Amino acid sequence: MLRRQLLHFGAFTLGGLPVSLVRAQGATQKKMVVVMLRGAVDGLSVVAPYGDRDYAAGRPQIALNAPGAEDGLIKLDSLFGLHPSLAMLKRHWDGGQLAFVHASGSPDPTRSHFDAQDYLESGTPGRKSTPDGWMNRLLAALPGEPAPTRAISQGNTPPRIFSGTASVASLGLGPNALQRRAIDNPQMQAGLAKLYAGDAPLSGTLRDTTEGREGMARSMASGNAMGGGGMGGGRSMDPTADAGAPSARSFAADAQRLGTLIRKDPNTQLAFTSVGGWDTHVNQGAARGQLANRLASLGEGLDALSRGLGDAYKDTVIVVVSEFGRTVRQNGNGGTDHGRGNVMWLMGGPIAGGQVLGDWPGLDKAALADGRDLAVTTDFRQVLAPVLQRHLGLSETALATVFPQSPQTWRHADKLVRA
């Protein structure tokens, strides 16, 4: 089974061991981190359209108050406000390093967590036969030389988004993510080398596993980057919605750890992590409550990620995305159900921040998808494409391999990433 895991993923082993089939040959300054919110976060609370007259009508208990009112939103513009629990991110907005794309998401209408997450991670909505994830295809298409730690997946479960033939390093969760394990024992390494001597792929995998692990350990050796606690979070009502992702409770410590590793390892260019707990069918709350608590932890984590990145933040784009949004109207349990359109977050020095982009369709009944949901007016791949091209330097040909069913160019593409 271990042999199958190594060959299939080319990237993952148990216990957070980084694996790679390529050798370090170069470094790059341009980086991207993708944070996936598993469980479908309520984008209408993250960036609330308080200026839309139909917003509050459908949410008598959970609508956020307008800016200036008690527990009110943080004003972004005349239409949108940021959830007050995300106040720690306002400095990124004011500094022009945080933007949002509203009414965005997948064109596929599924409201299944499993299918929607699969489509988001494969990059081919509506097509279940895609064998690999779009970040794995991106890794293979990136210009420049490969390296054992060019891509890092943080978490205890190999994500769909990084499945494929290109190799990815794996970083576990918690302060002991890189503690010494059996694979670090020279005798174990020698024994495995002898065992796999006649199998070139596995022999190469083993060699680069040990080299990549040693490199990550060296990068994290100084300071207290592996320490830290976390803020309050919580799990989703439906555990399958989280797909094994940790809750927001420990995200701040893990995010700062990831940012520090990216900053210290000049070879790292791509990273992925996920946070669960967003399936708020019951007692969602407004400015206070379970969603507010989780958003506060998430905001602390994103801010910690930026601090961990340090000087590298100016060359890093952080993308925050969820599989779909939630219903415009609250349900009978004071929560929201599975919806369609959501909001994408983009942070970092290369982002032309301080703006909410996208084509807002409105919340009147005639504009809603299926008469109940915020419509998707921007395909998530249209938002990612300018990041991949203008920031990471992908050609049109390479972009077509990452998103083989890519929709037409987004009309706001030139407004998102600084040239």
How do you describe this structure in short?
Pfam families: DUF1501. The protein is α/β, with parallel strands linked by helices and 419 residues long.
Give a verbal description of the structure:
With 419 residues, the protein is α/β, with parallel strands linked by helices. It has twelve helices and twelve strands. The radius of gyration is 21 Å and the shape is globular. Pfam families: DUF1501. InterPro entries: DUF1501.
What overall geometry do the principal axes of the alpha carbons give?
globular
Mean of the pLDDT scores? 86
N-C termini distance? 47 Å
Over the alpha carbons, how many angstroms does the gyration radius reach? Answer: 21 Å
What's the story with the biggest beta sheet?
9 strands, mixed
Percent of residues in helices comes to 25-40%
Number of strands: 12
| Tally of separate helices | 12
Element-by-element helix/strand order: HEHEEEHEHHEEHHHEHEEEEHHH
Total of domains: 1
Strand content: 5-15%
Low-confidence stretches are 1-26, 222-233
Structural class assignment: alpha/beta
InterPro entries: DUF1501
Pfam families: DUF1501
